[in-house]
Design brief:
There is one protein chain. This protein is α/β, with parallel strands linked by helices. The protein has 2 domains: 159 residues, Rossmann fold (3-Layer(aba) Sandwich); 158 residues, Rossmann fold, CATH 3.40.50.2000. It is 43% helix and 15% strand. It contains 12 helices and 11 strands. It has a 5-stranded parallel sheet with strand order 9-8-7-10-11, sandwiched between helices. Strands 2-1-3-4 form a 4-stranded parallel sheet, with helices on both faces. The chain is globular and about 60 Å long. Pfam families: PS_pyruv_trans. This is Polysaccharide pyruvyl transferase domain-containing protein. InterPro entries: Polysacch_pyruvyl_Trfase.
Length: 337
């Protein structure tokens, strides 16, 4: 039996991470999997943890300054089974370098202690590996994110689509300079396509003050987009909606890392714009161009789309090849469990 500790709530992409992680574990390690909500760990769970062959930390950008106790409030000294990260990543602003990042002393003690007891851990990109190495941890493998691996598509080749009929534009978590201008350009560039704007946290991401402020911006954006022929898709908390939307797309363009990775895993063309280190790390891992949000200049994004069509998807094919070539590393990690 394996226990996975996950944190999938409003963000549809987090549900995808957990689903793909469990598929890998079920196929290559153990079919008996129990999932525990990282925010709802109770006294009773420690008995469960100690019956498991491993306790797997699943999720996205968990390597934050306070990974313990803020992200994973698990008392490691009470757990006899190995506590092992699977596909965790580092999160920071695009302006921050890995060598300058520091965990709190309490968090660093947590990270070092779980790595001391694990043969290997799984990191989702080279920047994460670098952050861990800077903090004295040398047994993390760059396996890619679990979302890289749709087990039904591992051997399926990428095929370029020169005339996309359905385009999805994924919105950033926080409105960015140039987001609207880029939508206008996409509208003109693909006038005959079915065009959809997606919100991974929903159009109304939360009901607190910050959430209401985002919702006001997103609602105004959505209304204006609809007037220009775009449909709106709210994916909050729904893996089935995410899979249905992107699975039917011919091209994804936008800010959501896991929309991008889902599409690549299904061999669908995708171009990612990076809000923070999550996207930057994936660009580096996949050998893709690092398109970072700037002051509103959308020219680099336009150029990347035109280059995609000019080269018949060379960048996508390269990323898909990297995913395929990295899968044995993921399997190597899974064997240690």
């Amino acid at each position: 039996m394996i226990v996975t500790i996950c944190g999938a709530y409003q963000n549809a992409g987090d549900h995808l991470i957990g689903d793909r992680a469990r598929a890998l574990l079920r196929t290559f390690v153990d079919s008996d999997i129990v999932t525990v909500d990282r925010r709802a760990i109770t006294e009773a769970h420690y008995e469960l943890f100690n019956k498991a062959r491993a306790v797997i930390l699943c999720g996205g950008p968990a390597y934050q300054r306070e990974i313990y106790p803020k992200v994973y409030p698990i008392e490691r000294e009470r757990v006899g089974a190995p506590i092992v990260p699977l596909g965790l990543g580092w999160k920071s602003a695009t302006s921050k370098a890995p060598e300058t990042f520091k965990f709190t002393p309490q968090a660093l003690d947590f990270i070092r202690s779980i790595h001391d007891r694990a043969e290997l851990s799984s990191a989702r990109d080279p920047l994460t590996v670098e952050v861990l190495e800077k903090n004295g941890i040398d047994n993390a493998l760059m396996t890619g994110c679990p979302v890289w691996y749709d087990l039904n598509y591992l051997d399926v080749p990428y095929r370029f689509n020169g005339e996309p009929k359905t385009i999805v534009y994924s919105m950033p978590a926080v409105m960015q300079p140039g987001t609207w201008e880029f939508l206008l350009w996409l509208t003109k560039r693909f006038p005959k396509a079915r065009r959809i704007v997606s919100f991974h946290h929903g159009v109304i991401p939360a009901t607190d003050k910050k959430g209401r402020q985002k919702a006001a911006q997103f609602l105004r954006f959505s209304a204006a987009a609809m007037l220009r022929g775009w449909r709106i898709s709210s994916l909050a908390s729904s893996l089935p909606k995410l899979e249905a939307l992107y699975g039917a797309a011919d091209l994804h363009v936008g800010y959501r890392v896991h929309a991008h990775l889902f599409c690549l895993s299904r061999r669908i063309s995708s171009i990612l714009i990076n809000e923070d280190s999550r996207g930057v790390g994936q660009a580096k891992a996949l050998g893709a161009r690092n398109l970072v949000v700037g002051g509103g200049d959308i020219e680099p994004f336009q150029t990347e789309i035109e280059e995609h069509f000019k080269t018949r998807g060379e960048g996508i094919e390269r990323s898909v090849g990297t995913m395929r070539d990295t899968f044995p590393t993921m399997q190597r990690f899974l064997k240690t469990l």
